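request received
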Amino acid sequence: MKKLINDPDSVVAEALRGMALAHPELRVDHENRIVFRGDAPVRGKVGLVSGGGSGHEPMHGGFVGPGMLDAACAGEVFTSPVPDQMVAATQGVDGGAGVLHIVKNYTGDVMNFEMAAELVETEVATVVVDDDVAVQDSLYTAGRRGVGTTVLLEKIVGAAAEQGRPLAEVADLARKVNDRGRSMGMALTSCTVPAAGQPTFDLPEDEMEIGIGIHGEPGRRRVPLAPAREIAEMLVEPVLSDLDFTSAPVICFVNGMGASPLLELYLMYGEVAALLEKAGVRVARSLVGPYITSLDMAGCSVTLLRADDDLLALWDAPVRTPGLRWGA
Amino acid sequence: MKKLINDPDSVVAEALRGMALAHPELRVDHENRIVFRGDAPVRGKVGLVSGGGSGHEPMHGGFVGPGMLDAACAGEVFTSPVPDQMVAATQGVDGGAGVLHIVKNYTGDVMNFEMAAELVETEVATVVVDDDVAVQDSLYTAGRRGVGTTVLLEKIVGAAAEQGRPLAEVADLARKVNDRGRSMGMALTSCTVPAAGQPTFDLPEDEMEIGIGIHGEPGRRRVPLAPAREIAEMLVEPVLSDLDFTSAPVICFVNGMGASPLLELYLMYGEVAALLEKAGVRVARSLVGPYITSLDMAGCSVTLLRADDDLLALWDAPVRTPGLRWGA
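response:
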């Protein structure tokens, strides 16, 4: 295993230490492994809390800041945070307007966030993101997995909360974004979980996995390596089959799984954009880069979000986080 | 070779196509493989042109935009662009105030930028970046190689040009930044150049290379794999030995080589920051992420820049590029 780490058991704690030092505008609770906005709780604003297993960076800690999340709980690598962390995060961002939990659909995360919501006195609403069209149930999930749409949702809903919209409206918006987002991913190589010390799965030199999850969960099928053009088809086709994307402007997100360089991701974006144009889909905004990763897995995913004027304006609104930053 | 590409010969052209589609605010000259600011030339502003071999993304094309570069020429992977590209870029950004060429110190790049400067009527100044303390001469370089400081320089000098500073002042500033920046890198794995189809060098499972260049050029030495803490020492020590960083605020940049995930880069930043504190170096600003990469190489580099009030203010100034974006 070749990694820039000290001890597999201390990776998360030590990465959080580096993050705190690199981003003094954030406040890191090292005991509870929570990344907070430096000014949390923001009086009168709906607080947004997310979190999940580590290994998907910049998600979620890198999306904390004005215009996006108020706090993110970091679990061990690919392991849900515990309810105590979510309780501390929820209380820490409670500015009197309630708190939204943004939960990717994995059994552990859903259960622990539910438990936390019951343990706090704060008014909590929850959105469960389940946008992955690849498989119905899978290794850690009943129903569809939560993947790339989470990034777009945290940005859009973060902007709405920043505007001062009330909890019910923010929660409805979050569900709307989830309803309108679809993703499909693929892997060229496995990731290696530090504590395991070896690749999660074997993938021969001449094969790739289509429909992979972000923890190395199996996808739809293994196929021979193919050119980027064909890979783009294998990702775009199931997304377009699942929802109509032709009648509204679309946000198109080509995500890197961690080890695929930007050169390849831009090349993939070109292939995806060409397919969308052919299908009559109008791309209004795009995002290209490694935003919801799977440690050192090579591969990519495609997320499409059926937007509208409100969603596009919220997407364009200022955001200031380590992972996404523009405007203001 | 597992890559998201179609044909090894068309990688650069196809990545530029994707970049143009993803960033309509830029203008891509596909024939000459130049990424331009959409509004170039900017009347009365010094134009900044950089470029080099592809495979280091987001550098340089991802650093084109207000507050940074006016144009970037893309060569084939790890191969200098040709003088014709640099001529077209220089003419395309000439707003009447002259043009600065920002050149990483590799023999081909230096020669071709020199030739281009002689071929244009535009007033051209040149800065050659040579900040890598690892080795004196190397595979593609007489003298030190140009690496991480290039990112910081393009940001800082870009802000100065945006303010309307004249060419001589902008060029002096660029040389000052280069004089005050030092870098050292390491690799856990080799990169694979698409046209070669196999790793550039062999690195056994239990070894790493210290002092590596961004094209897989040999470094100082091969050593057994070590914990991040010791890797940080092997990078920070030679940088601190080369220049005094204790008497001024420092910008600290921990760069990913392409395949090392952000989780590991933040962990490395924590180690680097701890060493700097012990050495009496005051970090005023930081940057953590893959900004000057080497295709799919796993590893990282550390760059320190001895700043001052002017450099910090220019660092903080607004920038709007695909790769670096904040403020405004």
